[in-house]
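Appendix C reproduces, verbatim, an entry submitted by the partner laboratory led by Prof. M.T., so that reviewers can inspect both the input and the predicted structure.
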Amino acid sequence: MSYDFDKEYDRRNTNSEKWDVKENELPMWIADMDFQTAPEILEAMHKSIDGGIFGYQFVPDKYYEAVENWFEKEHNFKPNKDWMVFSTGVMPSISAVIRHLTDVGDNILLQEPNYNSFYKAIESNGRNVTNSELTYEDDTYKVNWKDLEEKLSDPQTTVMIVCNPHNPKGHIWDAETLTKIGQLAKKHNVMIISDEIHGDLSMPGCEYIPFASLDASITDNSISLVSPTKTFNLAMLHASTLFVPNENLRARVQRAISIDGHNEPGILAIDGTIAAYTKGHAWLKELKQYICDNRKLLSDYVDKNIPELSVLKSNATYLAWIDCTNVTDDSAELSSFIRKETGLYLAEGTKYRGNGGEFLRMNLATNKSRVEDGLSRLERGVHAYMDSKK
């Protein structure tokens, strides 16, 4: 490998939310990688800092060209630069759109289990979470089309958030599924918000479908959100881009972002994003293979040593969705027990709602040695939990 993903970094006492844990604990919960970002990005950031002047910045054309070229090379889709709106983050943008483009009391449709921050954005803004739950059978999630259309047809439903690829499952929605969702949303005058922050993290041989790449008849009713922050472990860069093909909708989105003050970049956002999208291809390729190897390590270990669990197959993200049905339907209790017993800190599936009570989420974007340590702890914790229930 050209890049060293095996190197361990001590992130304790660095204000890291992930590593704000006890000395013996191993955090594998929040979606935050333990790898330094690409050195090409660090070099660009150093140049920004070394200038020593931190005045106001604007978003140059070079930024939008970098986004455009990245998507053309990585995803075989060249978004129109005119569609793009800069913002300081995916979730702040979703909150702003909900707050300013919908009314208090509106229904925002999700397909549970789903990313937990969506619930906060919806409910904190006085809107209602409406769930069209994904059906789960034979280790696979599928859309319940009858229920989905019923929920979309409710006049009170004004927005549907699509998690593409899906978090926590790590599933890539195919073009046919996304198109059908878009057609139903258009039919019932429901706007689509497509969160695609994990799109770059499709596993080798797999490719996610940007919602904005679909037929114009449905994309003109949509907002897609992308960012290098999850891809390159740059959460605090505070940079994202919205694709809004419809000109009138784009003007309303720009206003919403501006009202909430999310349209002004920080000192590292522009140069960092440009470096990521112009020089990050090789680093990302190696990262995805490393995560893929960690995913296989997890699956093989669980099959051999913890057969009571089942790791769902995934083709995107660095997050593993682990079925605990044969152990418990209360993953919050199980997660808490494992952490107390072994120090392994996983995300309980209950926070993602739906059938999440039967799942744990594990972050595999860490060094192989830590994954191996985590698996040993997981085995001890699960078996100790089962023994405690006898």
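Residues 281-305 form the longest helix (25 residues). Additional entries are available on request from the coordinating office.
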